[in-house]
Structures are given as C-alpha cells and as structure tokens.
C-alpha cells in the first residue's frame, strides 16, 4: 500500500455534476436521462410510492386500528403520585410535575385522576380533574385550579351550536 493512496480521490468540496455540456463531459447529449419516455421530459416527477403500475405496498398492506390525528394528547397523573412527590403546602404546577417526572414527554392536556389518597394540603393546577379526584382534593382541604386548555372538537361544535341559538 502506498501512503499517498489513502487520500487520493477524496475532496473536501465535490464539484457539482454539469449535465448536458457536450460528449467530452461524459454527461452530454441525453444528460443521464436516457432516450425518450416520461423520465426524459422536463417537469417529470413520480410519486415515491410508485411501483411500475403494480399496486403499491402502502395500499396492499391491510390497515389496522384507529388513529385520530386531531385528538388531544392527554397526560394523566394520579393523586397518589402527587401525594408521594410533593410536601404539604406545595404548589403542584405543570413545571413542578415535569421536574418530579410525573408528567413526562409532550402532551396537550394534563388530567388529574383520583387513584390513591391525598393527605396533604396542596394547590394542584391542571387542565382537567376527574370527579373522584375533585372529591378527594376537597376532602383533604387542598385546592384544585383548572387551567385553560384546548377543547376537543366535539365540545367546540356543541359550543358553536348553542351560540347560534
């Protein structure tokens, strides 16, 4: 092996391929497009899923399940987890829950559920509360603060109907 061979042919900035610049360039005449046909014409583009007229794999594979693109991503936290993580008199906000790893990842709405017991007086801020969670929060003498958040599409439609009447 010759040491000089290691770097031969490697350039920091590769020159662009100049198409259709005569026969001496190696990319002249048809400029890599071949002879005739759809691909040789200007403005040609084909769907990435096109498979030569055969039924594309995307359409051949059966679809399963349900996916609501417009549905809200709801993060749930139980009262028992809040009771363990926070001391009495603490303000339980979205940021505080994220810091304690109770509300991880991306979500649109945070909902507090009534699983577990709440023994401390805390101020809990969330977008939604379940009925059992609200009862337990009241019973413990704590405070539930409802944050404004995105409303589901169904609720928006219902609000629009009542506004028209």
Automatic annotation (TrEMBL):
One Pfam match: Ribosomal_L27A
Feature: compositional bias, Gly residues: 21-31
Domain named Large ribosomal subunit protein uL15/eL18: residues: 76-144
GO molecular function: rRNA binding; structural constituent of ribosome
Example GO biological process: translation
Keyword terms of this UniProt record: Ribonucleoprotein, Ribosomal protein, RNA-binding, rRNA-binding
KW rRNA-binding (keyword) present: yes
UniProt biased composition (Basic residues): 32-47
Region spans: Disordered: 12-53
One GO cellular component, as annotated: cytosolic large ribosomal subunit
Function: Binds to the 23S rRNA.
Assembly with partners or alone: Part of the 50S ribosomal subunit.
Family: Belongs to the universal ribosomal protein uL15 family.
Name this polypeptide is given: Large ribosomal subunit protein uL15
